[in-house]
Amino acid sequence: MTRTSARYGFGDFALDVSQQRLTRRTTGEVIPLTAKAFDTLLYLVEHAAQTLDRDELLRAIWPGVVVEENSLSQNISTLRQVLGEARGENRYILTIPRKGYRFVAQVTTLDELAASTESPVPAAAPATKPPSRRRILQICAGAGVLTIMIAAISLSLVSTRARPTAPLTSQTLAVLPFKPLVPAERNESLELGMTESLIASLGQQGAQAIAPLTSVRRYAALDQDAISAGRELGVKTVLDGSLQRRGDRLRVSARLLRVADGRQLWAGNFDQDFTTIFDVQDAIATKVARALELRGVVDGVTRGAPYTHDPEAYALYASGRFAWTRQTEASLLQAIDFYQQAIARDPNYALAYAGLADSHAVLGVFGMRAPRDVFPDARRAVEKALAIDPDLAAAHSALGHIMVQYDHDWEGAAREYARAKQLDPSLALTYHRRSILYAVQGDTDRALAESARARELEPLWLAPRTFTGHILYYARRYDEGIKILEQVLALDDRVNSARGFLIRGLIARGDYARALDELDQHPLQTQGSYAFRAQALALSGRRDAALAELDRILKLSKERYVAAYDIAMIYVVLGDKESAFQWLERAMEDRSTPINFLAQDPALDPLHGDPRFAALVQRLGIYHRTLPDS
What we know:
The chain is an alpha+beta fold. It is about 50% helix and about 10% strand.
């Protein structure tokens, strides 16, 4: 980016364009920002008081590159954190619903030679601001790139004051997402697939040796500095690489860097047939493992993935994994299609079957599809995976999840999770899912412990932290849960499950106005979301509006799947116990996944004491059980 020599002041901050630096004017403290976060702030400041739509910002910050809107949202969230904006404050950046953003603080143009502690002067007129000049990247706009840019800031947020990023783990190595040799020919699913395979291979050297994919995938930006990423992740070394596939040819380069001083420990280049991609992965993993003196290297082969000999099947699997991580209805259906294509090429691809099972299950868990329409498919897929590879930890973990969410087989799920943990004690997903099982049983302490273990293994993965807020809601510790869920949304404001449980907590705490405001600003589809508006309206005394909302939901349920549990919750707040129990019976029959928390859910407190409620709890079998912890 071509930089001007301008310096801008706003509040207690100074923005130095030529130095690409944000400082606190009273103390001189330098506040670290990624390159794209800095660009976002600069564009907002240069256009202060103007409403900027999201498309304009995306074009300005990522010229010539197609990116997801989420990349912009993450930069905005990061900026709000470093500028010290508490949730709901708009001292600097105002969100314009369904439009974009506006920088609302007064901006001054500082004398280039003045000290950083100079006093503010009246705001300059917009006409005196120097025009914004953006570097034109040599990237083809039609490349279909999905650049993931989530700023890595500490998950243990205790205040909004910016401070240096603390190391998140004691892990030795981070394999950063591979970058394209030619940006216009980027294939991000293949790049992340290469990254994931190397993580799996090197992960065999020790459970704590390597940062997981969910932690490193946010460093996929084209301009990401490897050493900076390593420092943010708190690792000792980083493996940085690039690749390009052209037809049947594959070009890969990789280097191993020591974070402390940037020293290169190893580097290699490969140019060969795409069919030998697995040999390339083996060669890289072997060289890195030897450079780090890790155990487990045998005859030059460390392969822990991809469990297929067909490179095209592997590429399809990688695309499926990439789609699955986005967790939207459209992306999950896309993931299913990729996994099915991978299986068509290699019918013995156990890992693809496990991914297929997970994709079907998530559709049911979050109410995107009726559980009876997706969980049987999930079970068939995971059973196929286990028939091919009985020792695949991911498949045992997936089977345990199905047993909890659909079968209500608590003991069977506990056994599957124990087996998955035995096979791969570093698989964070197993601990996350086991926390759900313990929470269903009302065992808050063990649920929180399992969720904490999942966060320890994958510090930047937001699902376990989100579920911690979920657990605290059911434990009626609303303020604690709300605080954690706000932290999640500050990191990624599109985590629908976090927003859903934030709204639940607000309703339970009696903050109905804010709950309705969240719903107005952020339409969402997740567990319980069809009930939220009617609940907040009824509990705030707006019964007629709540009845109108109930009528809308009932009509909608004839057009698409609406969890019966959601409708039951509306009848509870309206005081119609008969209808509430009728819909809870339906929820039992169609296995609406929230029914698992029947005994824990504060929204159903008005039904306690009714024999019918006790009978439902007994049918679920979720009380008075001690599940194995091994």
